[in-house]
Amino acid sequence: MRFRSLKFVLPAFLVVGTAVTFGVAAGGSDNSKATVPTTENAYVSQVAPTKPHATQTWLSVCPATCEGATASERRAFVRFTVAGVPAGARDVRLSLDLYSARTTDTGVRVHKVNGTWSATSLTWKNQPAFGDIVGSRDGFTASQVGSIDVSGAFTGNGSYSFALTAAKGAQGVFQSSRASADQAPRLSVSWTDPAAPTTGALPFDMPATPALRGSEKKVYAHYFTPYPASLDNQEPNKDYYTRNYLAPAGESGKHVAYGGLLRDRPVPRPPLGGDWQLQDMQREIRDATAAGIDGFTVDVLSTTSAHWTRFKTLIKAAETTDPGFSIVPMPDMTSLRDATPAGLAASMAEISASKSVRRLADGRVVISPFKAEQQTPQWWAEFATVMDKTYKTKVALVPVFLNFSANADKYASVSYGFSSWGNRSPNRQGSIQSDIAKAHSLGKIWMQPVAVQDERPNQGIYDEANNTENLRTSWDNTINGGADWVQLTTWNDYSEGTQFAPSVNSGHTWVDISDYYLVRFKTGAWPRITRDTVYLTHRVQFASAKPTASTQTKLMTPRSGTNAPRDTVEVLSFLTAPATVNATIGGGKQPYQAAAGVQAKLFPLAIGTNSASIVRNGGTVATVTSPNAVKKDFAAQDLGYRGASSGRPGAG
């Protein structure tokens, strides 16, 4: 049961031109590349409002004050056409190279252009309208090329048009397409072919995205807007997560009693330029897509606050990053309990206008309210009616219950499908198959929650997940029971310690292990293990140990009904053939023989470091060392499991 309490630079689209068909780079179709030259670009000047500049060998931008008393502004316009990136291409990367004619401190902003223009007739007076800022950069070096990663702006093949404006400082001058060939703007594009398998980090080859999305079985991850990749775009060692959420004294000491609000955080990154919130969410969508996830179920905590703004930014990120990635609105009825059917409908209709919001084949928009039983079936029927009659939007309701068995029959008449929030310990996963059967008996689809663990310092509770046992058991019962959809709970709720997203404590461990089961769920066949891989999971302190800090007065205890606490290190091996696993637990050597396939081996937790290596025919084929040491003394209680993988050395 759940309770809530680059600096970015000018987009690569500065390179313009006619349609270009990209070729395959040396090395195979899984790493395709192309370079697009610029052919359509010019600038406009406020001081000469009717003069075209299509013959100039430079692109000039400056703010209104750059001419001193003359007070004029210059803007540059660029366009290009991309063709040849295959549908479903993965890891699309765009890199723009701009040659600076002279040093400038100008802060350049890049906007989407909404209207049409031609370089030969473009002037200040007839320039097209432009809108959102899609990127920015502060400063270039004279006579040098500046490379700009603008991967997040890619939306597919087609025409792109952008306006460059100056935000501050002196005039910026870049070489145009009329300059020498080696100084003209150019765009490098690379991608992974959709038919190519994902290799390297996983024990198996991940099927291509189109193949996974072609399955009727869907996997969503629950996105929690309070914990985006960054909260303030600061350096990681002093950002909001570090100062206020991880530090016990953070937020004016409000979290001291339980040793800090969080125990883990998103993978840090340096400050970004431009719309950093959008860039962060674009990256999260790329991470989720690479993991085979179909979309995010987004916890809608508010329809007016910063959480609502983040929700809309996430939708925009999906639109601009991966049109096939779906967003499922999940109105959180614990915080929206006072909403009216008409009020909620107005907000849901607003975001349902996006093509990224999940629709069924018949056009119905999927709405999946959390704690749906907060409102009556009649309330939800009225909501659906308002959506239909007022906003011409039909709804497929998939309520998420805290108590499914007590509400299934009552809500059947208003629901397309059912789900529950679920449990987080292995001994409480026995009802999964009966829940699925109940939903199917009522003619409904079932969305099964799958989780790693649950640790809530501020609530003083945790579930005993038994290392990866809860994750594996949940997936096994989901597959065997014939669930239709899955909701990974959660992608990024760090306050409950349930995150699958790449994090500081565990890297990609949880989502990587989950992918083995995701492929089986979606394709009907277990993926063939092609690379020996080993995962280590353990806590960094004993469950019964007490923190040394006297300020932490609120300690976590096991939730009622969960597995009994245990102190173990788990070595989870994925082997192509039998091998020797040399485990080192707290400094003590623990070798054993492991079978081919998937095998979990447990060892008692010990103070010190943990590692494991796979040895076959006298050679080491994989090794992992946990970066998280087990300690006797610690300042704050932390009962979340950490993870590390041989497939991603140094991560987690």
Description:
With 652 residues, the chain is α/β, with parallel strands linked by helices. The protein folds into four domains: 12-192, Sandwich (Jelly Rolls); 209-224 and 266-527, TIM Barrel, CATH 3.20.20.80; 231-260, no CATH class; 536-645, no CATH class. 18% of the residues lie in helices and 28% in strands. The chain contains eleven helices and 31 strands. The strands form eight sheets. It has a seven-stranded parallel sheet with strand order 14-13-12-22-19-18-17. Strands 2-4-9-6-7 form a five-stranded antiparallel sheet, with no helix packed on it. Helix 7 (377-391) links the parallel strand 15 and strand 16 (395-397). The longest helix is centred in the middle third of the chain and has 16 residues, at 306-321. The two termini are 28 Å apart. The relative contact order is 0.11. Residues 3-31 have low confidence and may be disordered.
